Amino acid sequence: MTASKLTFPIGFEWGVATSAYQIEGGVLEDGRGESIWDHFSHTPGKIHENESGDIACDHYHRLDQDLDLLHNLGVTTYRFSIAWPRIFPAKGKVEERGINFYRRLIDGLHQRGITPTVTIYHWDLPQWLQDEGGWVNRETVDHFVEYARLLFQEFGSLVPRWITHNEPWCTAFLGYGLGVHAPGIKDWGAAARAAHHVLLSHGLVVKEFHRLDLKGEIGITLNLNHVEAASDSDPDRLAADLADEFSNRWFLDSIFKGRYPQLLKEGLFNPHLGNWDFVQSGDLEVISTPIDFLGINYYSRTVVRYKEDEPMHVERLTASLPTTEMGWEIYPHGLYLLLKRVREEYTGELPLFITENGAAFTDEVTENGAKGKSVVDTKRVEFLHDHFDAALRFIREGGPLRGYYVWSLMDNFEWAEGYSKRFGLVYVDYATQERILKNSAKFYQRVISQNGIEAVLEPHA
Ligand code: IFM
User: Which of 108, 299, 433, 445 is most buried by a 10 A CB count?
Assistant: First the structure.
């Protein structure tokens, strides 16, 4: 029996995503400067087993091989980020060799018929900027605009889709609030300030892009969460509202409505956030400069209940559904609900992209003699199938979802988790740098070539 097919619209874009620090390695090559992630990962005790991105997937030295890998997968677009410290290794210094690396990458994609999607900032702030306060310092905003302008001048005619920031929530709150990401600062006042400056830099770069009258499109990628209350009680619903403001509306309201959400302003999160004197007149108009698309990273849902003595009165429940290796609940329906909600409340007919979705599972390489090596990652195949299905439900209701980038092309440096979590479609043997296509990569090849999925996943897949 052949399962029936669920087909995506013609022209739907299929991609994979990576980021510079997570795959490139080559941290001392061609005049690259230090980033906050070099600094942080070299500080003992910050990263799982004190690992770092020094070598990562050695992508910097294996560019052609990895471009062929992308071609082999059949993706129509590739989302990667540019390492700011390769371009501006020191204050006022531009490094041509860094620019040349990305030119080779972009040209190599075009030669293989793959459309580049560039993330301008995926967390690797130059350390020289952190030494001046990083995102807490408003002047970093001007440096970001200068950096983006240079990228637009160099690559503006070659890159049709630009993403200003990847997951500003993580930049601000993991980096400056919880301190579990670089630069490792634990100060919620600083985190709120950093969040505002990241958003401001986003708006100014969008303006700059339009001022230069470039042909492509520009947007931002947010990590959004489907938040649910543990019960219908008023306190639990308030907790869900608070969690939603903190993880979603802080960014959605400011970008799409030009205001910060109400509960935040009423200070329900305080005293942790300090005061809001960093918001200057006109900032929110800049932040809400119209964009051409919204990128959404979706991984899981969050279920919360009210707890008086929790810092934000929000307690996150432990998982009740099966989880990935990250401990994140597997909840594909949340993707559908989230897309629907974002469209209804914020974006209307604005194009949407899933700029990241994927899963970490424990993978094992099997030797099959003459047939070579394989990785039977059935859980990842099921995960992707069910999330594609959820996306398709949204599209069938008229939802303007234009493309999907799976996280990630290959296993890589998973930030504080080091190399312990594997998100790739392609397995990386870090000892030899061998790349091995997992079954999920083969599944994705079929999805792309058929522009669709089977209605019910067949057991062999
Ligand atoms: O690896 C990260 C990526 O850098 C940003 N989004 C989430 C991924 C998985 O944690």
Answer: 299
